[in-house]
Amino acid sequence: MPLTSQPIDTSIYATITAAIRSEASRLFTAAEVVAIIGYAAARRVGSAQPVIITDAAAAETLIFTEACVNNLAVYLTKAKKEIPKKGKIGIIVKGCDLKALVGLMGESQLKREDLYLIGIPCAGVLASAVQPATTLTTETIASKCCECDVHLPLGCDFVPSVTLPPGPQMESRYSEEIARLEALTPAERWAYWKEQFAKCIKCYACRQICPFCFCEQCLCDRNKPQMVETTPRPAGNTAWHIVRAMHLAGRCAGCAECERVCPMDIPLNLLNRKMAKELKELYDYEAGFEINDKGPLTMFTEKDDQSFIK
Amino acid sequence: MQKYITQQNLNTLIDTLIASGTRVVAPRMSAGIPLYEPLDSSVEMVTDQLPRRSAKEAFFPVCEEIMSYEKEGQQIKLTDIDPARFPETVLVGVRPCDAAAIPVLDAVFSWDYKDEFFLERRRKTTVIGLACTTADDACFCTAVGLSPAETRGSDLFLIPLNGGGFACQSYSEKGEALISNNSALFSEPNNAAPLPLAAPQADKIDLKKVKSWLDGHFEDTLWDGIAVRCVGCGACAFVCPACHCFDIVDEGTEKAGKRRKSWDACGFWKFTHHASGHNPRDLQPKRYRNRIMHKFKYYDDKFGQTLCTGCGRCVRVCPVGIDIAAIVEEISKK
Q1: Which of A226, A288, B237, B289 could make an SS bond with B243 (beta carbons 3.0 to 4.6 A apart)?
Q2: For residues A276 and B195, what is the distance between their CA atoms, to the nearest angstrom?
Q3: B317 touches chain A (CB under 8 A)
Q4: Contact at 8 Å (CB) between A88 and A116?
Q5: Measured between CA atoms, how close is A279 to chain B, in angstroms?
Q6: Which residues contact B67 (CB under 8 A, 6 or more apart)?
């Protein structure tokens, strides 16, 4: 049963905004970074968008609000050739975003010493379904924030000194939905996902926003030979989402960007959370907490479950 | 022709059309989101939310088969799709921003090459537009010269009235035929005032000025500033009522398969990737520039109008908050 909607105190975000502006200005003045990836206000009331600033004057445009939903780690990977790579890059990270950076460091995509991490004590951000000007409540909050275990990112170079007010009790939306799906018969579960994948239009927003989808050529873009049908049809859509879920198993730490950006509202993070749950049960492994150069699916130990070998 | 129709009679019209074998496409809920889809009954229609995808898919589906092949021994059998099998369709409850995009697509698909798949569906479809009563701050139809009561692209246009029912006006022979073939469901216009229409808070942009700036600024730092944040997905193009690029691929085995046409997007890295390996739009700013150039310059050069109806869908879905209305406004002030 959903709890009655309760407000979430985000009054610290104004203090955080002031602190990141002054830290950003200091970093440029001291020539400690060449760019900072952060958030700035956009045209729509209350909205925020990613911004890459390269001088102290632009520090004043930085903000942190409940509309700062993006995981900016994506800008450090892939074809983001436009970002200057001639020095340290500063990046604003929430706890969930930091988990992705930790994973990317483990996969040798980033070096800690190339980054200046500005951590955000975070009370939560808005769900994608609501207008950007909405007040943050237990109802309007993003699902990932309901089960957040990293309100305060650890190991950053700078964290604004604020005290996170205690938050209200929240429902565990993903855990409850996974439990509901697990209780279905395979045929019912298949019917559910078939209906969801049928909506997919292959816009690849899920892939493009994912910090872990950094393959230079995605398997699903190959046409000689074609591995996965590229047209938005049930067969290719299903193959695409399953390939992605498998490829993210043990790597995805749940920033839920894929789900946030899906214009067709496919609950993609459910697949990722289910895979994470399996990894936890099988290998006692959770992604995003420490820099590991090998994940459970890329190494073998004798303690691994071998019951499937007959 | 000006008439009045009650909500109940509109529902009867829809159900009568469905019963007679006409495909009636209207916004309805589909796995949790509103989409323009064929209705099974008038009760499914939802008109209080903008569908996530535009009405273009009634003529230009997300994916369609255009041919199939079969190989038997040394014989290859090719089978064309017969457009004659496309059903007679009535598209109901189309938002003005979606309806206005239909003539924009007509121009492209009937230009040098006549796209029989698009044109046959178009010929067989009657469009019933519905004045818009709900807008949010992503909406900007008024900025590109349209309005919540824009009738362009509609064969019949409905305006919801205070006290229920709709004022309806036909704008084409198809619209008049729909009224005369179902005349018992329509009555003479009454004097009821229309419900308050949506009021998008977007001031009209001087699109001529935008175009003249674009004419001279293929190379400009603006593109880098905007597009450095673009992650290169196709969400904006796919939800757009006017974007019309498509890809054609053969899918199947050596023995049998199908040739399919599906939506494509200029934001994709692969969109301009040549077989040689060269990519003329090698960085995202070049790809994003094409999006703006195509909408506000190239299309205007060729067809004398703008390839954007201000529905705001791309603004809402962009994963990184790129706002085409803000960009075009910025250009207009240069």
Answers
A1: B237
A2: 51
A3: yes
A4: yes
A5: 28
A6: B78, B79, B80, B81, B258, B259
Residue type, B262: S
Whether B322 and A49 lie within 8 Å, measured CB to CB: yes
Alpha helix stretches (DSSP H) within chain B: 7-19, 96-99, 101-109, 116-123, 173-181, 207-216, 221-227, 235-239, 284-293, 299-303, 313-317, 324-332
Question: What residues in chain A have per-residue pLDDT under 50?
Answer: 1
Contacts of B183 (CB under 8 A, 6+ apart): none
Mutate which of B229, B248, B316 to disrupt the A interface (most A C-beta within 10 Å)? B229
Q: Which of A155, A224, A59, A158 is nearest to B273 (CA)?
A: A224
Q: What is the pLDDT confidence band of residue B12, given thresholds at 50, 70 and 90? A: very high
User: Measured between alpha carbons, how far is B318 from B227 in angstroms, rounded to an integer?
Assistant: 12
- Cross-chain residue pair A199–B31, CB shorter than 8 Å: yes
CB contact under 8 A, B251 and A43: no
* A265·B32 Cβ contact <8 A: yes
pLDDT of residue A1: 45
Q: pLDDT tens for residues B199-222? A: 988 899 999 999 999 999 999 999
Question: Distance (Å, rounded) from C-alpha B230 to C-alpha B318?
Answer: 9
pLDDT at residue B274, as a whole number: 93
Residue A161 CA to residue B186 CA, distance in Å, equals: 68
Q: Whose CA is closest to A138, among A71, A70, A66, A69?
A: A66
With beta carbons under 8 A apart, name residues in chain A contacting B61.
Answer: none
Cβ contact, residue pair A83, B229, below 8 Å? no
- Interface-testing mutation among B228, B279, B313, B332, with chain A (most A C-beta atoms within 10 A): B228
Residue type, A214: F
Contacts of A264 in chain B (CB under 8 A): 33, 52
- Separation CA B246–CA B265 (nearest Å): 7
Q: pTM score, two decimals?
A: 0.94
Q: Do B260 and A231 touch (CB under 8 A)?
A: yes
With a pLDDT cut of 70, the percent of chain B lying above it is 100
| Nearest residue in A to B265, CA atom | A203
The answer to whether the beta carbons of residues A244 and A202 sit under 8 Å apart is no
pLDDT in tens, B73-127: 999 999 999 999 999 999 999 999 999 999 999 999 999 999 999 999 999 999 9
**CA dist., res. B22 & res. B10, Å (int):** 15
Q: What is the pLDDT of residues B281-326, one digit of tens each?
A: 998 899 999 999 999 999 999 999 999 999 999 999 999 999 999 9
ipTM for the complex shown: 0.94
